């Protein structure tokens, strides 16, 4: 998740992140603008959502030169970056006792 620096258009950040879709290692990769309809907070401007078969696929994705190219474009124009990686095998899929 990313927020834009003041004066930066969200589409500019989305365009810089869209380079990531050219990397072949993700099973699914989406770069979307936040709809900003949450009642409590809307600081996030752009969301990156990806799914990977395994840790090796994620590592290969992050090692691709296009990943660094996207960082080089987006880092100077973004304010906040929040990332979370998790294994779906360890995710809660029902209420925990």
TrEMBL record:
Cited SUPFAM superfamilies: Dimeric alpha+beta barrel (SSF54909)
SMART domains in the record: Dabb
InterPro entries attached to this UniProt entry: Dabb (IPR013097), Dimeric_a/b-barrel (IPR011008)
Domain called Stress-response A/B barrel: residue spans: 1-86
One Pfam family hit: Dabb
Record's protein name: Stress responsive protein
Species, as recorded: Asticcacaulis endophyticus
